[in-house]
Amino acid sequence: MSAYLENQMKVAIESLDEKYRTPIILKYNEGLKSAEIAGILNVNEETLRVRIRRGLAKVKDLLANDKQEFEKMNKSFSRIQNGGKLFVNCNINSSFLS
Questions:
Q1: pTM for the whole thing?
Q2: 87 pLDDT exceeds 70?
Q3: Mind listing the pLDDT tens digit for each residue in 31-84?
Q4: If you placed Cys at 16, which of 5, 20, 61, 88 could pair as Cys (CB 3.0 to 4.6 Å)?
């Protein structure tokens, strides 16, 4: 897995509500079994499985949105590229030019 994707996944997991984030971290980072996690969190195993499934679905959605934004940005850069030079409209503080 690329460092970029790993970082994006970490950011996505960290953005989850605690009730989704904690079980995912305990399962995939700490390697705990469902029964152990359910005991730690004081929930039944079915509730735990639902939270993990919903949390992973949210991570997938967040990563898909990130991919779509990246593709839009990439298309925009491709359209404005001209002769190997990239022209981007932006406001520049004139004090940087002096």
A1: 0.69
A2: no
A3: 999 999 999 999 999 999 999 999 999 999 998 887 777 676 666 555 544 444
A4: 20
Contact 20, 28 (CB under 8 A): no
d(C-alpha 77, C-alpha 98), whole Å: 28
Q: Which residues, 6+ apart, have CB-to-CB distance to 90 below 8 Å?
A: none
β-bridge partners, 81: 86
Tell me phi and psi for residue 50, to 5 degrees.
Answer: -65, -45
To the nearest 5 percent, what fractions of the chain are helix, strand and coil? 70, 5, 25
Q: What's the rounded Cα separation, in Å, for the pair 27 and 56? A: 12
